TrEMBL record:
Record-annotated Uracil-DNA glycosylase-like domain positions: 58-237
PANTHER family (alphabetical): TYPE-5 URACIL-DNA GLYCOSYLASE (PTHR33693:SF3)
Source species, domain of life: Bacteria
Keyword DNA repair belongs to the record: yes
Family of this protein: Belongs to the uracil-DNA glycosylase (UDG) superfamily. Type 5 (UDGb) family.
Pfam families documented for this protein: UDG
Keyword Ribonucleoprotein: no
Keywords: 4Fe-4S, DNA damage, DNA repair, Hydrolase, Iron, Iron-sulfur, Metal-binding
Protein name: Type-5 uracil-DNA glycosylase
Length: 254
């Protein structure tokens, strides 16, 4: 499968369901395909009885979401195992517990596709949909995969009002994707930082503004070192949800 597949397949998708169906068939990046499938076969001893997903991981959440959360890429033994973004690892434990606390998720835990979790007004996705070695996609892999995020944003355009980007890599990828999807990024291009926000205007006569929020990634390292605390994460998510018009209390000063 060539790198042309994502471009053709994403463009043909008319709904997010169609996009997800096409995405999980993607084999455009040989290094990522080999790694995700090797990991799915080798497994981690703690998950020896699991049948790993081992494919590209689609976005998760309602098609009419007003708020998007985008990170880096699936974790090798998290989403690559469970088949859902931020599900089955400690980063996801914090993210979904915080969304639940804000009233944006049906439960605080995320363990697998059959756990009953629902999101309210929020969709979780990533700029790279396959688990990468050492959790580091190459710039070429990022660019090849970006068309999926571009199309996802385009299909969400009628309702999307805010985007929370976790980490520097995600920030750069998300701004490029949103620009390709039809929003104008203000010059000079805003730099990533925790708590940074920037408003993108629709490039055409239709559509609405989208406010993009920067947030440190919910990685174990960031949480263990105190770079990101649960309170810091909650503040950003609450601000983004409130900006998107979701039913959360107006957040106080961070």
């Amino acid at each position: 499968m060539s790198t042309e597949y994502p471009v053709r397949a994403a463009a043909k998708a008319r709904t997010l369901t169609e996009l997800e169906t096409r995405l999980v068939r993607c084999r455009a990046c040989p290094r990522l395909v080999a790694w995700r499938e090797e990991t799915a076969l080798a497994k981690r001893p703690a998950f020896a009885d699991w049948e790993y997903w081992g494919r590209p991981v689609p976005g998760f959440g309602p098609a009419d979401a007003a708020m998007m959360i985008t990170g880096l890429a699936p974790a090798a033994h998290g989403a690559n195992r469970t088949g859902r973004m931020f599900t089955g690892d400690r980063a996801g434990d914090l993210l979904y517990a915080t969304l639940y606390d804000l009233g944006l998720a049906s439960q605080a835990t995320a363990t697998g596709l059959d756990d009953g979790l629902e999101l309210y007004g929020v969709r979780v996705t990533a700029p790279v949909h396959c688990a990468p070695p050492a959790n580091r996609p190459t710039t070429g892999e990022r660019d090849t995969c970006r068309v999926w995020l571009v199309r996802e944003a385009q299909l969400m355009q009628p309702t999307l009002r805010s985007v929370v980007v976790l980490g520097t890599f995600g920030w750069q990828a998300a701004l490029s994707a949103l620009e390709e999807a039809g929003w104008s990024v203000p010059p000079p291009r805003p730099a990533f930082g925790h708590g940074v926000r920037t408003t993108l205007t629709p490039a055409g006569p239709t559509g609405a503004e989208v406010t993009v929020f920067g947030c440190y990634h919910v990685s174990q390292r960031n949480v263990f070192t105190g770079r990101l605390t649960p309170a810091m994460l909650r503040q950003v998510l609450a601000e983004a949800a409130y900006t998107a018009g979701l039913p959360v209390e107006r957040p106080g000063p961070g």
